[in-house]
Amino acid sequence: MYLPPQFESEDPAHALALMRAHPFASLISNDEEGFPFVTHLPLHVDERGHGDLVLLGHCARANPHWRYLQARPEALVTFQGPHAYMSPSVYPDLARVPTWNYLAVHCRVRARLIDGAQDKDALLKALIADHEPAYAAQWRAQDEDFARKMLAGIVAFELRVQDLQCKLKLNQHRKESHAAMYACYSSGTPDECALARWMQRLGIAVDAKSAKDA
Fold it and tell me: Exposed (0-12), middle (13-18) or buried (19+): which is 58, by Cβ within 10 Å?
């Protein structure tokens, strides 16, 4: 993605935080005609030894995407974090234009299919633990034939991260806008409030008292 240096984060903790807080990702591959094919799906982030990062997910067996991954294992995964409009009114002068602030992570991955029932079951339990741990008991209690049928209906995969880009676009290079932008975002929509918290995390936020004293 287009990644100006002022918006690039090289801190792995930032990317991990975004991927875990916003796990509903887009998996992008090429189909048999070379056209991009996209599946939207939740992914479990698995940190392994030696800095390895693996994303775990699955799609319906009827979805041809797993066949594309089998034939062409390299793919792209994108995660979209909070985002919001930014009015030019946050600047002290009028010669400005609107923009959009957002947080995103792009991962270049290499796929490996997982089709064994036990391995798929373990992967599903990782996703259950992410989103509804209490459901694990219900899943374990399912009739064996039902569980086997459900597992047969999906194809699971590991997506090993080969390269990662993390973009945090929060107007870092426009310090004159930070106080007003933070004040606007911190009292706005859920996405705007999330951006305000990221401004605090990155040390580019100005609280109300500091803004008043400036």
Answer: buried
Name the helix (H) or strand (E) containing 107: strand 99-114
* Among 110, 131, 121, CA closest to 23: 131
Express each pLDDT in 19-71 by its tens digit: 999 999 999 999 999 999 999 999 999 999 888 999 999 999 999 999 999 99
Domains of the chain: 5-174 (2.30.110.10)
| C-alpha of 99 from chain center | 21
- Position 209 scores a pLDDT of 42
Evaluate if residue 207 carries a pLDDT over 80: no
| Tokens of residue 178, six digits | 């930070």
For the chain, give the number of residues.
Answer: 214
The Cα 123–Cα 110 span in angstroms is 17
Residue 123 pLDDT exceeds 90: yes
What is the distance between the alpha carbons of residues 102 and 80, in angstroms, rounded to a whole number? 8
